[in-house]
Design brief:
Chains A, B, C, D: This is Aromatic amino acid beta-eliminating lyase/threonine aldolase. Four copies of one chain form a homotetramer. Chain A has 344 residues and is α/β, with parallel strands linked by helices. The first copy, chain A, has 14 helices and twelve strands. In chain A, helix 1 crosses helix 11, helix 2 packs across helix 11 and helix 6 runs parallel beside helix 7.
Chain lengths: 344, 344, 344, 344
Amino acid sequence: MIRFNNDYNHGAHASILQALAQTNDTQYGGYGVDDWCDKAEKLILELSRCPQGKVYFFPGATQANFVTISALLGSCDSVICADTGHINCHECASIENAGHKIVALPHHDGKITAEQIEGEVQAYYNSGEAEYLTRPSLVYVSFTTEYGTLYTKAELTAISAVCRKYHMYLFVDGARMGYGLGAAENDLTLADFGRLADAFYIGGTKCGAFFGEAVVLTQPDMGRRFKAHMKQFGAVLAKGWILGLQFYTLLHDGTYFAITKRADEYAMQIRDAFRQKGIEELVVSPTNQQFVILSQEQARKLGQKYVFEAEGPVDDDHVCVRFCTSWSTKQEEVDQLVADILNL
Amino acid sequence: MIRFNNDYNHGAHASILQALAQTNDTQYGGYGVDDWCDKAEKLILELSRCPQGKVYFFPGATQANFVTISALLGSCDSVICADTGHINCHECASIENAGHKIVALPHHDGKITAEQIEGEVQAYYNSGEAEYLTRPSLVYVSFTTEYGTLYTKAELTAISAVCRKYHMYLFVDGARMGYGLGAAENDLTLADFGRLADAFYIGGTKCGAFFGEAVVLTQPDMGRRFKAHMKQFGAVLAKGWILGLQFYTLLHDGTYFAITKRADEYAMQIRDAFRQKGIEELVVSPTNQQFVILSQEQARKLGQKYVFEAEGPVDDDHVCVRFCTSWSTKQEEVDQLVADILNL
Amino acid sequence: MIRFNNDYNHGAHASILQALAQTNDTQYGGYGVDDWCDKAEKLILELSRCPQGKVYFFPGATQANFVTISALLGSCDSVICADTGHINCHECASIENAGHKIVALPHHDGKITAEQIEGEVQAYYNSGEAEYLTRPSLVYVSFTTEYGTLYTKAELTAISAVCRKYHMYLFVDGARMGYGLGAAENDLTLADFGRLADAFYIGGTKCGAFFGEAVVLTQPDMGRRFKAHMKQFGAVLAKGWILGLQFYTLLHDGTYFAITKRADEYAMQIRDAFRQKGIEELVVSPTNQQFVILSQEQARKLGQKYVFEAEGPVDDDHVCVRFCTSWSTKQEEVDQLVADILNL
Amino acid sequence: MIRFNNDYNHGAHASILQALAQTNDTQYGGYGVDDWCDKAEKLILELSRCPQGKVYFFPGATQANFVTISALLGSCDSVICADTGHINCHECASIENAGHKIVALPHHDGKITAEQIEGEVQAYYNSGEAEYLTRPSLVYVSFTTEYGTLYTKAELTAISAVCRKYHMYLFVDGARMGYGLGAAENDLTLADFGRLADAFYIGGTKCGAFFGEAVVLTQPDMGRRFKAHMKQFGAVLAKGWILGLQFYTLLHDGTYFAITKRADEYAMQIRDAFRQKGIEELVVSPTNQQFVILSQEQARKLGQKYVFEAEGPVDDDHVCVRFCTSWSTKQEEVDQLVADILNL
């Protein structure tokens, strides 16, 4: 069976294994106070053109999301996101468990708009009971979204402007940052995130690392007591250098961008095959996740050879499924899948 | 500089790097549902003679502590531990942040007794306001303790009996489990923890793994919704097999026990050297952590060549410091240190 | 100005003032352990035909809601309610602050159906990630709803059946219980709530008391540690007898039911007046809250003499407003308002 | 039986009942936005010479404590208090439940000193892991303390100075404020609290009101989102004017101060009687709570006629008990008790 079910079914890029082997006899300071984390932080701030920022390395994305959000907000602050947002659907209410209401707005292809956000904020201020309600204080978006779609520079600029107008933080979940940046039609850069967002992260787990997410706080004062918050939720790894090492290794020579771009290209090859067969896409995704509507028979056939993710029935005869390429996907795997699609 | 400052200043045992390299082209299921986690769980339950139990792999020890405790308790339940307990002193109030009061009892060499615990519980029931107070519902002990000391089988059996008498959970923090089991004077086994405790863990981070702690719930029903609790706090690693792989690799051929036992033996060599020089120990520790009282001058001299942990001043002329051996410590490093101690 | 803005703009029924005066020289035990609370509890359990239950007196409704819900649920349990539910819209995220996700279903005239609830629960179980998600564990409905509407016996019976089928609690917010029971078209009784719900409350604040809500837990074991939960959130009043006294005084001779029924009748007189003038209702409400669509001019005119609650604009020329009668509303106030409506 | 068991066994001062009766036909705005609350706030700020402050009325003291503390602190902030502090011993871990660690310092007659506090703070900053620990951010003291003792102006000034030096809030639990101010040897005034504390409250429940505590925030910006925090925990009473009315009624003509001062004088009469009989006090208390050591026989005898609070055994033959006078205590009750003590 060949796995196209997700982008975290594989270990790490070979360069990381090599770096771990080379440094395995070296002793380091604990809790992320070490050379690797320093070098990785500097590099990430350079790439984001954000010298005033700070970088914090988290073991996983759920932690990166809820710890960052709960460190930035008080208990009377709420979070705006798309109803499809990962924090709203797949993280076991970790945001609510940390005390914050999520205000979920109806998504369009996984995205929300500046207009929707402004409408929600105005509803709060016009409610007549704003003094007694949780205030929308942070907007959470994902790049790429749950449907593999992308915010454009114009869209993110508009959202950022609304956030600044109403003193809300803009936080970008970048668990799949590499796949977003690598898409042919993308017009955003890490420097744009450094400029438009208050916090964002560069995903490692799904983009070539064994594990880890690099959270960037773009404003100098946001990090006050941030590491204590991380520690309180167990997000400070004793051997923190393992995280710094992975990010430095992937980023310093562009490997991170190359391997995720390649995965996007593979996804386009698969999309083309589905299109040739007249198989409908749920949404048009320019990145590594492709959601398509298969007949039960098509799903059964492809399921004999490939692992992919069931997204639920569409009608009695059709199901929606996700095919996901990854930094670790190989051309020959894509070629086989393309051939098998065309033979459906 | 040679680091004797802690037992997590080094990567991982070579066998883990090797296993990661061998499997780096293999695809796995996510979130700990994979063969490595299955094999590691079976092995751990066998070693603990606890076939009815369940094993959960955590990225780190703070998470293992607060997630397990908060999964087992309600918001009106409190936790009894030594005032020196790691959860009371070094985890940024993660237990309180999860809503639970810690009732800290005065320690004796890092330990508390069954009598102290029973006294505290009786004070609760005799308070006249038990209906309105948080109930002591879990006892947290560490093996080894913060001072490197060990509970004996008799002591742990007595504590376990008090816990069962008053329907409290017994939870053993085993971040340094290997160093406890490896001590010459230890009389406890994993099977004893499987029998006497309701939950305990086998530490990986400090005992040869890159990272990871294996939590054992010894009673069949305790795990209800446990994985959801883990997920809610971001403690379920996407590539969970990396944790299973590390524990299986270390445990299946006894490496885990051998490398920690050796570290204990090295610590005894260092202790002997200090004793020969008439240097006082803060407590008598049979394991890898040695707390000694140095003169300022002795500390300065050793500090030129070794990194060790300052524990604070004892008087104007003396400081307490910790020398810590590790699974990664080498005989030649110990030989040098011993020689330098004897030359003080 | 005459206030029709809400049902809590007035002190308490005269009989309560009288009872307070008569007992003001009596000494009582603290924290709700007293004769008044005992008598009130017995009476309420009789009225609810729920001898196995327990009654707890809360100072206010927000406390009654979030403390009860958080006492019954664990942190991985979520709450299903209408998107218009009071806990979702007007209580400053107190449920989320206590750690629970609210799953808000689209309302129909302020109500949700057994079918909607079952659909949501099935979506959870069919999600493929139920093990990692918060489980719907409690259904919250209000009687009367935010729109003054009522669940019928058939509707509540169906909801109760779904709750029992899926092991969820059914919790009825009865802040306006009196107005619901008093409506001409109501077919539910306190005994029905005692039989169909796991928890419900009889509102005092809006129904003739100075303050207070009487929460009934209908199953014998639900109250385990309940008073500790109340205490933890400051919901146990030192002079608890004041709450017991108020409920006993209002309930023992039927005053509670009479004064709320009268308020419903007044509301019907007002509704009739609006209907005579062809003024549209937002929803058809059989109870003390009437939501009508006024022209700006109509609203301005009535606003010169009456206080009512603005619910927001409907279109450029119309607004929705709420007229609310109360246990304290007088016939002459209603007569005036009716006359003024007819003269619009 | 005559109750000397506590100071909340009685309804309210007659003037409050009268005010409630007089206003029972008046309609008011909800949630504390009304004339009574305005008048009471102005009066309290005048008495406290704190024109820049804000006053918030709470139903009860546990709420006043945990809601104020949690509104002022973030989740990585801890609270310093005496180990005997009410929040540490009698409020069911409401502070921890709100996420904050309590650092309990050993008390001296129920009090802690500026030196102790500074020592604790310095230990935090010198810990070497301050970045990862909860920061002491608020000092909680009670006036009067759990033992009825008083901070002097010198002591409170010193504590206030330490708090300002280390950017910590000083919060004074004034549930028994009246009894403190009324003591013969007291040298503190409300204006001192307004000047030295960041937050304090004037207790109503124990000092003549049916219920209620008036929290003063002395700095203009502290109240940001404070009412939302109150609402989130259900501490905003719908009929808020009942609280404002009680405080205005008790304070505007000095009744509050007179009735509590009288209770202190009664307590001194009782203390004198115990002293005449050679009965030992646990601590020397100048206020309405008297803790004395009785023989079992003495306790039995007095227990036939009086209700008082058992504090636990002192030795096989002796128990510690509390006799508590109250604003509602009558001279003849004291006379009887004094006579019976002298006849022991």
